[in-house]
Design a protein that fits this description.
By secondary structure, the chain is of the alpha+beta class. Helices cover 47% and strands 9% of the residues. Helix 2 runs parallel beside helix 4 and helix 14 packs across helix 15. The chain starts with 21 loop residues before the first helix and ends with a helix.
Length: 360
């Protein structure tokens, strides 16, 4: 999973990129040649030639001597994929020991069974720390702000920028994939000085980027940590066919508002009578609430039903309350309407569900 640019399709910067294919030519070149030169350096350290990998990505040697040059996402994907396999190192020379081919897939698999994104990311970071002593990753949270932090445990030298940007973008790509959500960054902090290709960071890392900061971190709303993990083993197998796409997939849906609505409804179900009530608690207008929920592929009624269903199933499984009491507890005026809704939600009656639970 190597560093690549975000998948924004605009016109090609023909002056600074080598042509690859018609598809590639429709994408602006935004990956700095400095990253390519770092991969070449990894080959040199191993006494190997990068010629085949550069040729596969149609990157001519002359391009390496042009400090302002950039390549496209497709070129970076082809180059990185070839280099990772030829060097048998998914870290592309960043660390004091190689990360053999398949290492990052193993990290994702180890995170797949976590119930929430926060736990999955914590697990991903913990297992990454077992692979290398050169950096330390951790997820932190303070009030409403979450951070994925990368601490350098030894000087990374000429690999510093490429390593830090790659690992942070990989972590973000994994987080987006696991939650099937676009995670909007509030900002990125980087310890190294602003590079000559500063403009590439507008695409590499969305949101404001601060250089010469106190630490390396991605900063985002802590609400994302509560999102459920939406992937399974079958999805993982499909993803691994082109794992490098993790860092560029243009996730269109941001599921954070859906999660906030769920949490708010669960806490204040009986106090929220209208969309205006809910919108006020979220500091939004009702119109904005409806629009954003639609963009996330959801609706207020769907979320209300989901919260009521989850509350009802929990009471059925964990309490001895009667059906009428449960109906009232989740906001229904009578038992009959609750039973009708419950069957619509789950395909079975409340009594049938309860009978399947050994505790009853």
């Amino acid at each position: 999973m190597a560093t690549r640019k975000s998948a924004h399709t605009v016109h090609t910067d023909a002056e600074l990129t080598e042509p690859l294919a018609a598809k590639s030519l429709r994408v602006r070149a935004e990956t700095p040649i400095a990253f390519v030169k770092t991969i070449v350096r990894a080959y040199e350290r191993r006494g190997l030639s990068p010629a085949a990998a550069l040729d596969a990505a149609q990157i001519t040697p002359s391009l390496l001597s042009r400090p302002r040059a950039k390549i496209t996402a497709l070129q970076m994907e082809l180059l990185s994929g070839a280099a990772m396999q030829e060097l048998d190192d998914e870290a592309l020379g960043w660390f004091s020991r190689r990360l053999p081919w398949g290492s990052y897939g193993m990290l994702v698999r180890a995170s797949l069974t976590a119930p929430t994104l926060g736990l999955a990311l914590a697990r991903w970071c913990r297992h990454h720390n077992l692979l290398t002593d050169d950096i330390h990753l951790q997820v932190t949270r303070q009030d409403a702000i979450a951070r994925i932090e990368l601490h350098e445990l030894r000087p990374l030298g000429e690999f510093q920028e490429f390593c830090i940007v790659s690992v942070l973008r990989n972590a973000l790509g994994v987080a987006c994939w696991l939650s099937d959500s676009r995670i909007a960054l509030l900002g990125t902090t980087l310890q190294f000085a602003q590079p000559p290709h500063r403009s590439s960071y507008e695409v590499l890392l969305e949101g404001p980027t601060t250089f010469k900061a106190d630490g390396n971190a991605l900063v985002f709303d802590a609400g994302y940590l509560s999102l459920p993990v939406r992937r399974d083993e079958a999805a993982l197998q499909r993803m691994l066919d082109r794992a490098l796409l993790l860092t560029v997939r243009p996730y269109r849906r941001d599921r954070l508002l859906v999660e906030k609505v769920r949490q708010t409804l669960a806490l204040h179900l009986f106090d929220i009578r209208t969309a205006d009530d809910l919108a006020a608690r979220l500091n939004l207008s009702a119109r904005t609430l409806y629009r954003q929920l639609k963009e996330e592929g959801s609706s207020l009624q769907q979320l209300k039903d989901a919260v009521r269903r989850d509350m009802a199933m929990d009471l059925l499984n964990r309490s001895n309350r009667g059906i009428k009491q449960i109906a009232q507890a989740v906001g229904f005026q009578n038992e009959k309407s609750f039973m009708r809704a419950f069957k619509t939600w789950t395909g079975q009656t409340p009594d049938a569900l309860r009978k399947r639970n050994p505790a009853h």
